[in-house]
């Protein structure tokens, strides 16, 4: 079943299928079936610094509204969120945002943008993955401080 049509070649993008969006936020309305079609768009628009981001279409039409809302709120982060949904790994924020903000405030009197916690959570996950591998290679079921 078709979800939307490619903005360039009008090919159907199926529900649950992979599609590309332009990294330029004002282009988010457009969807592309492939990087090739996004390239055509990039040529037409003459973006100076843009790339294609892979997204996964919702698996049912009911989800469309929710997904669209998510993209508007989270912007670039939506590609990370979708990629994780695919892999079935929880993508919760692992950082205590209020403490992070007060640390940066106290250290440098700077504000912290909302998506920092998400990027840091990704870093924490990457470090945890390494620690898990280390614990596993030593035959342990517990991740310990020395694994980091
Ligand atoms: Zn296309
Ligand atoms: Zn664009």
List the helices and strands and how they pair.
Blueprint: E1 2-5, E2 12-14, E3 18-22, H1 35-45, E4 52-56, H2 64-74, H3 77-87, H4 97-108, H5 116-137
Antiparallel strand pairs: 1-2, 3-4
Bound molecules: zinc ion (2 copies).
Description:
By secondary structure, this protein is α+β, with helices and mostly antiparallel strands. The chain has 2 domains: 2-74; 97-147, no CATH class. Helix content is 45%, strand content 11%. It contains 5 helices and 4 strands; from the N terminus they run E-E-E-H-E-H-H-H-H. The strands form 2 sheets. It has a two-stranded antiparallel ribbon. A two-stranded antiparallel sheet has the order 3-4. Mean pLDDT is 83; it is low at 65-85. One zinc ion (ZN) binds next to loops. Residues 22, 24, 27, 41, 45, 47, 50 line the site of one zinc ion.
Query: What fraction strand?
Result: 5-15%
Q: What ligand species are in this complex? A: zinc ion
Computed CA radius of gyration, to the nearest angstrom? 19 Å
Helix and strand sequence = EEEHEHHHH
Uncertain spans, ≥5 residues at pLDDT below 50? 65-85
The tally of domains stands at 2
DSSP E strands, number: 4
């Amino acid at each position: 079943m078709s979800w939307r049509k490619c903005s360039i070649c009008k090919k159907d993008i199926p529900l649950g299928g992979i599609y590309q969006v332009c990294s330029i936020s004002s282009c988010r309305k457009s969807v592309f079936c492939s990087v090739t079609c996004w390239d055509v768009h990039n040529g037409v628009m003459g973006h100076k610094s843009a790339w294609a981001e892979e997204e996964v279409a919702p698996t049912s039409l009911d989800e469309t509204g929710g997904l669209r809302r998510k993209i508007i709120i989270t912007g670039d982060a939506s590609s990370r969120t979708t990629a994780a949904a695919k892999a079935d790994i929880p993508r919760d924020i692992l950082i205590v945002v209020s403490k992070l903000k007060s640390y940066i405030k106290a250290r440098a009197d700077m504000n912290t943008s909302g998506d920092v916690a998400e990027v840091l959570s990704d870093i924490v996950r990457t470090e945890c993955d390494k620690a898990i591998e280390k614990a596993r290679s030593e035959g342990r079921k517990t991740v310990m401080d020395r694994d980091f």
